[in-house]
Amino acid sequence: MPDARDGGVTESLAFANATLVLPDRVARGWLHVENGVIVGMGEGASVPAGAVDCGGDFLAPGLIELHTDNLERHIEPRPGVDWPHAAAIVAHDAELASTGITTVFDAMRVGSIPTGKGRYRKYARSLASEMLDLRAADMLKISHFLHLRAEVCSETLAEELAEFGREDRVGLVSIMDHTPGQRQFRDISKLEQYVKSKRGMSDAEFIEHIAHLKELRARNGAAHEAVSVREAARFGAVLASHDDTTAEQVAVSAGYGIRLAEFPTTIEAAQACHDHAIAVMMGAPNLIRGGSHSGNVAAEELAREGLLDIVSSDYVPAALLLAAVRLGEIWGDMARGIATVTKAPAAAVGLDDRGVLKEGRRADLMRFRVAEHVPLLRGVWSRGKQVA
Fold first, then answer.
1. Over 211-278, what HEC string results?
2. What's the angle, vertex CA 88, arms to CA 87 and CA 90, rounded to 5?
3. Residue 207 and residue 197: Cα distance in Å, rounded?
4. pLDDT value, residue 153
5. Contact 66, 98 (CB under 8 A)
6. In angstroms, what is the C-alpha Rg of the chain?
7. Which one, of 190, 208, 189, lies nearest residue 113 by Cα?
8. The pLDDT of residue 215
9. Which helix (H) or strand (E) holds 127?
10. Predicted TM-score (pTM) of this structure
11. Residue ranges in the chain modelled with pLDDT below 50
12. Which of these, 123, 126, 196, 128, lies nearest to 154 by C-alpha position?
């Protein structure tokens, strides 16, 4: 049954003379929507009466975003500023719709450090409840799921995970370990720049902070990894790794049953992921900027090595479609590029009702053209209802 809380539905809509982005190729054709579902499609450039003439524009599935920090930016637009949450969530939702995203897994950290200069407090349960209430009230344009980012280097992970259940639409749980000196922060100078600018720490306070994090990892790390695996199974959520750096770390991930790797930091780790049938996801900003802001492996390098499967917008929603088009140009295959932000993420999290243009699938759609290597969105539809 169509769910009006996932962006609403519209009765009938037809597109013609479009460049359809199919799972394995592009082709000029038409597409017909009824009650939020694709009910017919075919090839040819004719424009039947009543159909929208796309003039050759691309017509593709709506983008599927598995990892975005964008909601946190709306909740806290400046350090220490707590923006009204309902307004922030609605603005976040509208921004994503405006970039072609029709399904999002909103990333929320679980696992906090409530004491010390580098403290950060819990927030995920209350924010998730607000998000779900707005969804139930039909106040959101697109489809929202939760992505719980389980921080093993913390004090309260088990307690925070216990606050969630199957009813909370938790679709993804990623095991994160931000202990200094490994994974994302092998280069501690990068962490030092980030933390000092965000937290205003002195040299002495930063040294104390590093020691505290390492002590937390030694004390809680193994137990927190185990509880993350167990709770993901309780939620019925997909389990992901985060910032794998070595083949040994990937082997541990595979042992947990992980089939999605977020942002592996080296070619070695990305290759090991593929060897273990683990899909590799990289950030769109990395691809667009030409490298990682943390000094890790470049997404384009993985793409050219055939080791990149999925792209996420990470911290720039508008980068998602731009990165997919860039990959289409790198590979000489637009369908393959668009699949990294539609078909592949849908498959990774078990969403078999969207992500491809096919009869019977949700009419989550975007229309765009490309000029000067930049995609220009002409329209976005969630379950057949135009949302941007």
1. HHHHHHHHHHHHHHHHHHHHHHHHHCCEEEEECCCCHHHHHHHHHCCCCEEECCCCHHHHHHHHHCCC
2. 65
3. 15
4. 82
5. no
6. 21
7. 208
8. 74
9. helix 124-136
10. 0.90
11. 1-2
12. 123
